[in-house]
Amino acid sequence: MACGSFNYSFFANSVGKEMCEKRKTGNIAKVATCSLAVQGNTSTTAKPVVEVPADQNSTFINLGRSSTKRRFETHRCQETIEEIIGNGKFGRFGGKFVPETLITCLNMLEAEFRSVLHDVQFQAELATALRDYVGRETPLYYAQRLTEHYKSKSCSGEGPEIYLKREDLNHGGAHKMNNAIAQAMIARRMGRTRVVAATGAGQHGVATAAACAKLSLECTVFMGTKDIEKQSSNVLLMKLLGAQVKSVAGNFKDATSEAFRNWVNDLETSYYLTGTVVGPHPCPSMVREFQSVIGKETRKQALEKWGGEPDVLVACVGSGSNALGLFHEFIDDEDVRLIGVEGAGIGLDSGHHSATLTRGEVGVYHGAMSYLLQDHEGQIVGPHSIGVGLEYPGVSPELSFLKDSGRAEFHTATDQEALDAYRLLCRLEGIFPALEACHALAFLDKLCPTLRSGTKVVVNCSGRGDKDAAIVFNSKLT
Ligand SMILES: Cc1ncc(COP(=O)(O)O)c(C=O)c1O
Predict the structure, then answer these.
(1) FRET pair for 336, CA 20 to 30 Å: which of 74, 135, 163, 248?
(2) Could you report the per-residue pLDDT of 335-384, keeping only the tens digit for each?
(3) How far apart are the first and last CA of the chain?
(4) Is 230 a pocket residue for ligand 1 (Cβ < 6 Å)?
């Protein structure tokens, strides 16, 4: 199946293996040894595009380079820079559906993205920021009591082993910081002085405001009035971090449109810092690359903890950045099940949900083709979820492709199930997860009884739930 220049070789595994071999033996043109976070293959005959200065090794080897011997075991195989960037197409999805005036700007952004992937200095600075500022690597935590909980519910007393990828422990409280810091660095490198962003749950807003404070960039965050009300603690943080928070009637989709408009009026000095894997090319590829550190670390940590790969990966899906961040590393590993969980809101048939992949139809929104929540006339239908960060009517073009190809499966969890999952994790593990992440956790109820004993399940705990504590506390227990 054609898919641009992307490495979706799981359709023909032998082709995938051959590609990987070629990369290992240096028969493929460019090897992105400086690609974010995991560096490798100097133990092979491959010629790196760039040499890593010896004194920067410690930042590069941060992930998955614990010994020369293990470099290939700890990483799928190196992607070429062209594969990382891609051509913006994921099968029929993706693209660059924008007015002509924006094309130059997006082309400049793509050129800059390409350039930072080649730039040893940039990569070294980013690796240092991820380690010392963001706090990576995040733990792969064995949730023992949660595991026991599901074992105790089964007749045999057996069940899967559950691990949490603790993205909630990142500075700022969510996976959003992985991308925000990297893109703020790109904005500075492009000579932009002002950053514009849109946020739903406020986590991307907080991450962007913090990164801008650190890099001395002016920051304006657009946020829907409804979300400002629901996620007021994050609004305070953004303001304390020096950002201007502009309220927009509506929710995240309306804030995104307004942020776009604001950016378009000031293309010379402003940088639009997209928080997730949607929008026109190169935004989805760029955010996915900056989030793929989650999966790369998971591979390395799984190898250290149980000497293998995870069997099942579970992540919530709003627009798709935490899910792709975890999945991308494992797309070629056919044995690893990839499960995305969307918000079923108050029920899939109620019309009040955010299950874009499960219930949407293909269309174009915010510059790209993907599944969309729309009516029969093609008008956008407003999404709903108790996890505010899941409320987006579109979704990642890459996840749309993974759905169509059958490589990833998508399920849903209701608001109530997410609330129950929040309380359960608090009581069993002393961890309060973001309501968005609770959708992934809630799906364990359905998943665990179907898995054989000992199956290794990794759930992406994409953020912390301080922002949601009042919502959960005040909601009625069922
Ligand atoms: C903690 C958390 N998880 C998940 C999401 C959903 O976004 P995405 O699907 O891009 O990971 C958000 C969005 O704000 C979030 O704040």
Answers:
(1) 135
(2) 999 999 999 999 999 999 999 999 999 999 999 999 999 999 999 999 99
(3) 47
(4) no
